[in-house]
Amino acid sequence: MVKAMGIDVGSTTVKVVVIDKNKKILFKHIENTKPRIKEQVKEVIGKVKERFKGEDIPIISTGYGRKLVEEAKKSMTEITCHAKGIYYALNTTGTLIDIGGQDSKVIVVEKYGRVLDFTMNDKCSAGTGRFLENTAARMDIPVEKIGEIALKSEKEVKISSTCTVFAESEIISLLAYGEEIGSILKGLHRGLITRIVGMINSVAFTPPLMLSGGVAKNRAIKEMLEEETGYSIKMPEHPQLIGAYGAAIISLEQNI
Ligand code: ADP
């Protein structure tokens, strides 16, 4: 049976997807990126090959560490792979917002997952998952819970620092002055969303809005983005796997 594998080596997580010829996901895996990426990738791919013993599954790599995947027949940019992945995951054109651990991107996606326009931020952590993660760690709250806590809060504190490092000290000071965790977290989410909206406004935006990346699993991001933009947002079933899924689809399409 024809199969294809996509591997997305992100700065925060490594994602692997194996699909069949109908683009159905047969296997998926996510793990945190380790310092020795080449060795980690070898190990992960080895496990997948063990699972599909005796089958020759072509691999396309993507993500910031894509060039470190020696087993890949080809590597493609995250923009190309995300556009392809979201088009087939949601079956629509539109504008994809991808928020990862250390970068964020907004991609206008055409038919068949072609890229019409895009913008990417990998210079400033304030528009990425890291912005929330640092604070969650500082507050000793699992990152999976911060969205719910933010949404429950009626109050919202404005975080005026636009840099993650400075925002962290601002938050420590807010906590020291007795500000509630919920309202601080809501303000923090607002800060990230304001930056993402700025990116949406800088591309040739076409609806619907779609969301991917690990941060898409945070419910507050979706809800607050909908509130801020006035558009409802479509979410794929596996938002964090969209890049790897797109890489696998390209591998199928190009018959590499
Ligand atoms: P990258 O591709 O850049 O490595 P990912 O798309 O895998 O990044 O996203 C990683 C980010 O997603 C991290 O900042 C992490 O905190 C966040 N994240 C992952 N799962 C969740 C979750 N359940 N709730 C909130 N944030 C999450």
Spell out the blueprint of helices and strands.
Layout: E1 3-9, E2 13-20, E3 25-32, H1 37-51, E4 59-62, E5 74-75, H2 78-90, E6 94-99, E7 104-109, E8 115-121, H3 129-139, H4 146-152, H5 164-176, H6 181-200, E9 209-212, H7 219-229, E10 233-234, H8 242-254
Parallel strand pairs: 1-4, 4-5, 6-9, 9-10
Antiparallel strand pairs: 1-2, 2-3, 6-7, 7-8
Helix pairs in contact: 2-8, 3-5, 3-6, 4-6, 6-7
Bound molecules: adenosine-5'-diphosphate (ADP).
Residues 10-13, 100-103, 129-130, 133, 143-144, 213-215, 217-218, 240 line the site of adenosine-5'-diphosphate.
CATH superfamily: ATPase, nucleotide binding domain
Distinct compounds present? adenosine-5'-diphosphate
What is the CATH class name? Alpha Beta
Largest sheet: 5 strands, mixed
What count of structural domains?
A: 1
Total number of β-strand segments? 10
